[in-house]
Amino acid sequence: MRTVTTPDEARRLIGEMRERGGTVGFVPTMGALHAGHESLVRMARERTDIVVSSIFVNPRQFGPGEDFERYPRMIERDSAALERLGCDVLFVPARGSIYSGDDRTTITIAGLGDRLCGASRPGHFEGVLLVVAKLFNVVRPDAAFFGQKDAQQAVIIQRMTADLDMPVRIYIGPTVREPDGLAMSSRNAYLEPGARERAPAMRRGLLEAMEVVRRGERDARAAERIVRDRMREAGFEVEYAEVVDPATMEPVGRIDGIVLIAAAGRLGRTRLIDNIALRVEGGDVAETLLEFPGWSRYEW
């Protein structure tokens, strides 16, 4: 694995590798890698010829009072893990090589970024989209890989690539979980032992909501109440528990077609998110991944 630290180095190295033939797969991360990140690197290894990953704790996606300063940074451990997984190039830029200090461009996806996590974290998705666009311009991948745990982020990135005609296919990987069901996240390390024991209640609420849908419930508010109640019983400060159309992030009244049941809340100082995406067709209910390749005019 080759490690580069500037956009010019990354462009040059990846360009040379591409000239020798093959497709480029990209897994952008903020480091503190866990099994969820590792699953995306494996997906990239299976689907593309050259695997590139980046580690950059993006200040633009953290709001005032959030955890930018204490976000875990463990570059040596992460680098060893990526090399073990067969990553070919690791891009570890400094802040000054990504942002000039005079940047004035923003990227906003109307509507999609205003609700759910966007409502409680103003500017968050603008920060995500800007850094992803910048990284795509450096790496120029054929495919990029994101996790379903961050479902709203994944959908918004797909919308950006489609709307801006970026020639990159977005693949979504399923959420990877701890044995008790808690979605893997770098922020799980913040949880105190008592809170960690209660954290899987969010997942249990989502599973219970899915089960009532399988038994025939189609009222979105009923499903939301189940998730909210289970979270509150476990001591969560509930931020949201909603059933939405994943293509628009707008709330739905009736559960039909493809829906996203998404939740967010805090246990102490730690903010957790999770979701289930369902495909509901008549009496058939199944989990699904939120991939929208049909949005793009780019030919795959």
Structural class: alpha/beta
Secondary-structure element string: EHEHEHEHHHEHEHHHEEEEE
Poorly predicted ranges (pLDDT <50, ≥5 residues)? none
Tally of discrete structural domains = 2
**Mean pLDDT across every amino acid position:** 96
Q: How big a fraction of the residues is strand?
A: 15-25%
Here the CATH topology of the largest domain equals Rossmann fold
- Strand order of the biggest β-sheet: 1-4-3-2-5-6
User: How large, in whole angstroms, is the Cα Rg?
Assistant: 19 Å
CATH class division of the largest domain: Alpha Beta
Biggest pleated-sheet summary: 6 strands, parallel
H/I helix tally: 10
> Got a strand count?
11
Q: CATH H level of the largest domain: which superfamily?
A: HUPs
Assign an overall shape: globular
CATH architecture of the largest domain: 3-Layer(aba) Sandwich
Written account of the structure:
It is a single chain. With 300 residues, the chain is of the alpha/beta class. The chain is built from 10 helices and 11 strands. The chain has helices at residues 7-19, 35-47, 75-85, 95-98, 117-120, 124-139, 151-163, 193-198, 201-214, 220-233; strands at 2-4, 24-29, 50-55, 89-91, 143-147, 169-173, 237-245, 250-251, 257-267, 270-281, 284-287. The strands form 2 sheets. A 6-stranded parallel beta sheet has the order 1-4-3-2-5-6, with helices on both faces. The chain starts with a strand and ends in a 13-residue tail after the last strand.
